[in-house]
Amino acid sequence: MRIGVCIKQVPDTDTRLRVADSGRHIDDRDVNWVISSCDLCALEEALLLVEAAHQAGSGERPELVAFSLGPARVEEALRKALALGADRAVHLLDERFQGGDALADGRALAAAVGREECDLVIAGAQSDDLGQAATPAVLAQVLGRPYAWLVMAVDLQKESRSVHVVRELEGGMNEVLRLELPAVLAVQAGINKPRFASLRGTLQARRKPLERMDCSDLGLDPESVGKAGAGIETTAIRLPPIGGGGLLIDKASPEMAAAELVAHLEREALL
Amino acid sequence: MVQNADSEAGSREVCVCGQALGSDLRLARLDEELLGPYSPGLYAEALSALIAGERTVERERRTIVLLPHTYQVAEFAPLLAMRLGAAYVPSICGADREDGNGGPRFRRAILQAKLQAEVRPRVRTVVATLQSGAFSSDEPPAPPLQVVDVGLPADIEGPRERKILDREAASAGGVDLPSAERIVTAGRGVGGADEVSVAADLASALGAELGASRPVVDNGWLPREHQVGSSGHTVTPNLYVALGVSGSIQHLMGMGGSRVIVAVNKDREAPIFGVAHYGIVGDLHEVAPALTRLLNERSAGRRC
Ligand SMILES: Cc1cc2nc3c(=O)[nH]c(=O)nc-3n(C[C@H](O)[C@H](O)[C@H](O)COP(=O)(O)OP(=O)(O)OC[C@H]3O[C@@H](n4cnc5c(N)ncnc54)[C@H](O)[C@@H]3O)c2cc1C
Ligand SMILES: Nc1ncnc2c1ncn2[C@@H]1O[C@H](COP(=O)(O)O)[C@@H](O)[C@H]1O
Hints:
The structure holds two protein chains of two kinds. The relative contact order of chain A is 0.17. The mean pLDDT of chain A is 94. Chain A has a nine-stranded mixed beta sheet, with helices on both faces. Chain A has a two-stranded antiparallel ribbon with strand order 2-3. In chain A, helix 2 (74-84) crosses helix 5 (199-205) and helix 3 packs across helix 4 (135-143). Chain A is built from seven helices and 13 strands. Chain A is globular, with a radius of gyration of 22 Å. Chain A has helices at 37-55, 74-84, 102-115, 135-143, 199-205, 226-229, 254-267; strands at 2-6, 9-11, 33-35, 63-69, 88-92, 120-124, 147-157, 162-168, 173-180, 183-187, 210-213, 232-238, 247-249. Chain A is of the alpha/beta class. In chain B, helix 3 (40-57) packs across helix 4. The N and C termini of chain B lie far apart (60 Å). By secondary structure, chain B is of the alpha/beta class. Chain B has helices at 7-20, 32-35, 40-57, 71-84, 196-206, 214-218, 249-255, 284-303; strands at 26-30, 63-68, 87-96, 105-110, 115-121, 125-130, 146-150, 162-169, 182-186, 209-212, 239-243, 260-265, 278-281. At the A-B interface, helix 3, helix 4, strand 7, strand 9 and strand 12 of A face helix 4, strand 3, strand 4, strand 5 and strand 8 of B. Strand 9 (173-180) of chain A pairs antiparallel with strand 8 of chain B, so a sheet runs across the interface. The structure holds flavin-adenine dinucleotide and adenosine monophosphate. Residues 6-8, 36, 38-39, 42, 67-70, 102, 105, 109, 123-124, 126-127, 130-136 of chain A line the site of adenosine monophosphate.
């Protein structure tokens, strides 16, 4: 049994972001790059499944492979995944992968996942940067596998080669689903609490295999990936328009700000 | 088709957006009962057959498929886009019609709503989903909608590898947020389980209930029943105080209808200031205790 995890490297949510001179990209000079938050949960969920299968003493321990598509810096995210417990890493690295959307990146990831013959793929529900909530669905569709989005619990049913999952619905409801393996799951933040890497794990990660793959390794038509294969093109990025027209209190001291707010709330008859 | 959500509001927003794009509107209605239990594969297959049928009639025209961005739609819409060979533009908050310069433009939030991207489809068929609330649906669309009931396209089977086993309530209540008159919400900016007390102290000084953003709950700083937002409670208090909340769309969906919104955030560009009636730029660990002190002094003064 092999479990694949898709991780994306994104700017840390606390990074102050600036638009680059091109007007189409972010200025990445001072950006701190991290693994997208849902993807840490995806990795944690895969680790929990591997550990549970191992403890059940059911023979072989599932193998865990981490996949990431992105430029050279992404190797750091993959090393982190290895430090956390992944067995191997696959880096989809090719200039021609640049500028893709969910369709292009999902296609490329599907080729890598298909090549590694993963029985279960776990990805994040939504990336912290592009937030398309679509890349794992594309991956599933390309490979013709069943898919569930917004997964909040995973239970592997090894004997019946299936997986039971809890999927979040709107309005405080959940749905319990059964998916046949091989399947693709996109997990929601909060499904678990991701662990921290140990020093031992970090040292071991350096010796674990990390393989790089480009378009030709994956048998991909360069026209189907990256900018060329994307359905959309970004023409500009900018700060969002400030709406509302509320009152911004920007006082030298917290006490003065508090006093001003209380005065306003009194006037609104809220206190 | 839109589960558990206000499907009428969703379709009104779709009409408003469709008009912004300058298209003729015709609503094709497919009875959910005909389709059987939802699965993303089944819905993508059925809708793509319907839309492909429409397209053979109007071969040369640009086709834009608009859907509300609900949890269900977000799951199957990428599959639909792929079946149609379409571009996929998820959760748009704005759209501009064709400008003779390469087709329509769509706007969507990226990087946790810190920035906005303008995107252009590279193919003639587009599947786009609408961020909830982005297209004001207060006014009904101008021309009366032509509604056509359509049947199930032939040969729709849907994949069999996914089955619904059960439905259950996500979490038991306990905190009565929806009927609270005042709410103080702790966002991720409070910084940790031990720091939630800054929000709790202000809440008790105000006689308010304690709310939480999703990461606060995901991290285990507060139980799930405190969560406000699209996957938590929808609240409409008279006073909503957000401490260290950035103002993501999913959070705004839960509290945007509050009468007076106060936000405390150290980042003056935080999107929450876009909806706040009163915003304080500053460190919540200084501002919230100062507010708590002032409010407590005030009520002590009143008691004497
Ligand atoms: C399908 C789906 C459903 C979701 N449902 C919900 C939901 O129901 N509810 C919900 O809340 N989210 C929901 N989310 C998550 C949502 O997208 C955001 O990730 C989340 O709302 C962010 O929470 P936050 O504002 O607390 O944290 P962040 O976005 O991390 O913001 C923290 C803020 O605190 C500020 N800050 C930090 N330190 C300080 C300080 N010392 N003083 C003052 N300010 C400070 C920062 O400037 C920042 O603006 C959902 C996401 C998905 C994909
Ligand atoms: N470049 C990438 N490399 C690896 N995984 C990715 C990549 N892009 C998206 N994913 C996966 O797909 C999920 C959803 O991303 P998105 O569709 O952009 O919201 C992410 O949380 C990842 O698990």
